[in-house]
């Protein structure tokens, strides 16, 4: 099901309405094609878009849907990319967006970067570990965060779901110094 929907979405014309994967009420995950479709955004009543990609959404989305709140994080999908630094601010953007409307989180394909942000959001919201949050997302969409992002998600749990904790001084007895 996931693969057929994924492979058949290429080269759709303007006006095509895509399906979005609802991870939990008012929180959706997708790729860039879906996020660029004004008709799709209207259908799902999207009010907030979080883009994690090499480039932002086209200005036409904001022009046609002036009420859309957008956040853009320019980040390549590489194991060395630091997405952890953005977890808390993305959590706040999603939390606020869900309270005011509906949020779409996307990257290029909706598989690694955006999935990582949604997983981090669920981890913090429910105080759950990486694997449980991953299973919740995979129940709704086929996702595969890259190994570097998986390590960052596991670290986020160790940090108590607060990225400011990574700057806290550590004692010599902690595993950080071993």
Automatic annotation (TrEMBL):
Keyword field contains Cytoplasm: yes
GO MF annotation list: JUN kinase phosphatase activity; protein serine/threonine phosphatase activity; protein tyrosine phosphatase activity
Domain Tyrosine-protein phosphatase: 19-162
A Pfam match: DSPc
Primary subcellular site in the record, as a coarse category: cytoplasm
SUPFAM superfamilies: (Phosphotyrosine protein) phosphatases II (SSF52799)
Ranges of residues in domain Tyrosine specific protein phosphatases: 81-141
Location within or outside the cell: Cytoplasm; Nucleus
A GO CC term attached to the entry: cytoplasm
Keyword line: Cytoplasm, Hydrolase, Nucleus, Protein phosphatase
Catalytic activity: O-phospho-L-seryl-[protein] + H2O = L-seryl-[protein] + phosphate; O-phospho-L-tyrosyl-[protein] + H2O = L-tyrosyl-[protein] + phosphate; O-phospho-L-threonyl-[protein] + H2O = L-threonyl-[protein] + phosphate
Entry similarity comment: Belongs to the protein-tyrosine phosphatase family. Non-receptor class dual specificity subfamily.
Stated name of the protein: Protein-tyrosine-phosphatase
Lineage of producing organism: Eukaryota, Metazoa, Ecdysozoa, Arthropoda, Hexapoda
């Amino acid at each position: 099901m996931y693969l057929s929907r994924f492979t058949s979405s290429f080269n759709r014309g303007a006006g095509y309405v895509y399906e979005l994967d609802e991870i939990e009420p008012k929180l959706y995950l997708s790729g860039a094609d879906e996020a660029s479709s004004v008709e799709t955004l209207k259908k799902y009543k999207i009010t907030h878009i979080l883009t994690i990609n090499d480039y932002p959404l086209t200005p036409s989305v904001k022009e046609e849907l002036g009420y859309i709140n957008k956040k853009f994080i320019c980040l390549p999908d590489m194991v060395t990319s630091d997405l952890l630094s953005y977890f808390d601010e993305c959590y706040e953007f999603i939390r606020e967006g869900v309270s005011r409307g509906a949020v779409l989180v996307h990257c290029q394909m909706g598989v690694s970067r955006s999935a990582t942000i949604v997983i981090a959001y669920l981890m913090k919201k429910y105080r759950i570990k990486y694997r449980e949050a991953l299973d919740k997302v995979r129940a709704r969409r086929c996702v595969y965060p890259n190994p570097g992002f998986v390590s960052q998600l596991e670290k986020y749990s160790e940090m108590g779901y607060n990225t400011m904790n990574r700057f806290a001084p550590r004692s010599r007895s902690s595993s950080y110094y071993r």
